[in-house]
């Protein structure tokens, strides 16, 4: 259990570094709102699927996801997806990984459709 906590902490630190490469973020700049809307970097946890809990760091602008996104499995700290949002929608290349670290599967999102760029390890689909 202690190792899992260390892995999760290292993953969070990596992601905070990933999001602050060009801008300094102090602790008070995480999960903040302005006029009731999410803004800046947010650390969020998705527990919709009871078997796999996912932790993500998203960028928000005026309450809408806009910018870098990275998420990982809380159970083992493996990155599960990374990409960019533009005005609340996935945009550009997104990389998806399986819980065992296999991947990436790459999808390219545009404003009109989704195009499969490359599928690796299709036996897991």
Description of the molecule:
- This protein has one domain.
- A hairpin with a 2-residue loop joins strand 1 and strand 2 (37-46).
- The model is unreliable at 15-28 (pLDDT under 50).
- The protein has one helix at 2-19; strands at residues 32-34, 37-46, 54-61, 64-73, 79-86, 89-96, 105-109, 114-118.
- An eight-stranded antiparallel sheet has the order 1-2-3-4-5-6-7-8, with helices on one face.
- With 125 residues, it is mostly beta strands.
- The longest helix has 18 residues, at 2-19.
Short structural description:
The chain has one helix at residues 2-19; strands at 32-34, 37-46, 54-61, 64-73, 79-86, 89-96, 105-109, 114-118.
What characteristics describe this protein?
8 strands; 125 residues
Beta-strand residue fraction: over 45%
Low-confidence stretches: 15-28
How many domains, in number, for the residues? Answer: 1
- β-strand number: 8
> What's the helix-strand series?
HEEEEEEEE
């Amino acid at each position: 259990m202690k190792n899992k906590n260390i892995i999760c902490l290292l993953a969070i630190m990596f992601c905070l570094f990933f999001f602050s490469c060009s801008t300094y973020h102090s602790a008070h700049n995480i999960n903040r709102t302005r006029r009731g809307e999410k803004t800046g970097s947010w650390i969020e946890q998705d527990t919709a699927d009871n078997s796999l809990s996912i932790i993500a760091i998203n960028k928000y602008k005026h309450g809408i996801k806009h910018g870098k996104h990275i998420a990982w499995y809380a159970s083992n700290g493996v990155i599960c997806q990374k990409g960019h949002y533009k005005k609340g929608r996935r945009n550009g290349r997104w990389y998806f990984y399986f819980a065992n670290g296999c991947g990436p599967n790459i999808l390219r999102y545009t404003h009109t459709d989704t195009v499969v760029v490359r599928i690796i390890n299709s036996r897991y689909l």
